[in-house]
Amino acid sequence: MNKRTRDAASVAGGVLAGLGAYPLFFRRRCLTWGARPDEVARKLPGDELLADAGVVSTRAITIDATPAAVWPWLVQMGSGRGGVYTYDWIENLFGLDMHSARRILPQFQDVKAGDEFPLGPGRPAMQVAVLDPERTFAVRFADGNWVWIFALFTEDGQTRLISRNRIASAGSWPARLFTMLVMEPGSLIMERKMLLGIKERAEALAREQVA
Q: CA dist 92 to 124, 171, 175, 189, 193, Å?
């Protein structure tokens, strides 16, 4: 075996080892970033909309503000609305037309159960499935294969914002493998940025309301 072949084999072995390590050592952390065990186990309104989900992620963040300062940022989310407070340039590589707002948009605050939120031009819409102001906001995608729940809990004058995704199992094993090894880590990168973005905006709004 020549040096080039040995190097290629070493790289391939490293990649395989890394892929094998993810489900064993990192997957749970990826799917539960920021969430406490009790929050991961907690039943949330909207869980029943996709009870047999193949993938469930529960991620959370503490926001130094009341739910009243967090809620407006949630209900204005969407393509052509307030965006999703993450990496817009990545979202827009996929044609999602996301532009994350840095202010409350009054025209998008009057949300009702059954309203549809656009995900992007030509993409399936998200329908508001659960709406309990300042407590729970959940959307279900048109194909029924994805439910996204936001739940707010007050703790010591702060807000715990929980974001839970419930996603149906992919069909074939290559699709399931791709979801686990590519989509799950990718979702953490985007959702972490989103939660931090909501935190920053809500805390700034709370300071403005006090001033």
A: 16, 27, 23, 16, 15
Per residue in 161-177, pLDDT tens? Answer: 999 999 998 666 677 77
pLDDT over 50 at 15, yes or no = no
> Among candidates 96, 102, 152, 89, which has minimal Cα distance to 120?
96
pLDDT digits (tens, 9 = 90+) for 134-150: 999 999 998 889 999 99
Superfamily of domain covering 32-210? START domain (3.30.530.20)
Spans of all domains in the chain: 1-31, 32-210
- DSSP calls for 35-102: --HHHHH---TTGGGGTT-SEEEEEEEEESS-HHHHHHHHHT-BTTTTB-SS-HHHHHHTT------S
C-alpha distances out from residue 183 to 54, 63, 102, 129, 177, Å:
13, 26, 27, 24, 9
Task: Give the predicted TM-score (pTM) of the model.
Answer: 0.86
